[in-house]
Design brief:
Oligomer: single chain
Number of strands: 0
Order of helices and strands: HHHHHHHHHHHHHH
Strand content: under 5%
Radius of gyration: 20 Å
Largest sheet: none
Amino acid sequence: MVTPGIGRGLLDVVERRFLLRLIVRKELRVRYRGSVLGMAWSYVKPAIQFGVYFVALGVFLRMRDTVPDYAVYLFAGIVVMNFFGEGFGNATRSIIWNAPLINKIYLPRELFPVASLYVSAVHFFPQLVVLLVAALISGWRPTVAEVLAAVVGFLIVAMLALGLGLLFGAANVFFRDAENFVDLIVMVATWASPVLYTWGLVQAELPRWLWFVYQANPLTAAVELFHYAFWYGGTGRPALLPNGTAPIPDNLWAVGGGALVVSLVVLVVGQLVFRRLEGRFAQEL
């Protein structure tokens, strides 16, 4: 006998995979209802972002002179941050968006943040294909370590986005300001990670203790893992860049492992907070 209304968190999502697929299909239909471009928006937004940043930083600020294949370097970081930003933001808003369902029937509430992350992954993979093609054109021939780096980077971002989405999604039910904080976090995270610039420039300017704080950001590790996976091989794997800094941190795998642990901790904390508050969702909504 199981007490009604008490679930097992994310384990229930695994058992109800069919229901998860239904929610994902519903979200995709609602999102693109009446849209002319439909899934093509998965390409339009990152293309515009890439164009603006490449012209502003690559051309005007001459980043392409100091970073070989700067276009691939830039797009690898944009792909990571788009996945994180969309997954985190939509997971935060998912409970509010699905209030009619939550008020009518009981089903594992975690289904909604997970479905939002799933939709973000659906948008992520077309961008990844573009990144793969660009990397191959630039001369990229991956090694096993580089492929593994891409997998680890993806897991870091997915767990971090879901963990924060569960945490802020629960808070957003009670305080609508939470989703506004999410937008600020995503904006700051884009500039606080080596997406538009190289990590060596940061290391040269920050004091040692603040540099460790910078590296402790899981998104920093995820972006660098994607750079190592898709950009580094296409540059001929040089020891130094033209500006004299190393292209990839020497402790990349140690930082990546730490980021994986931090993301897992965030996921566990987010799940615990979500389960603690989910019993009041229907009442508050």
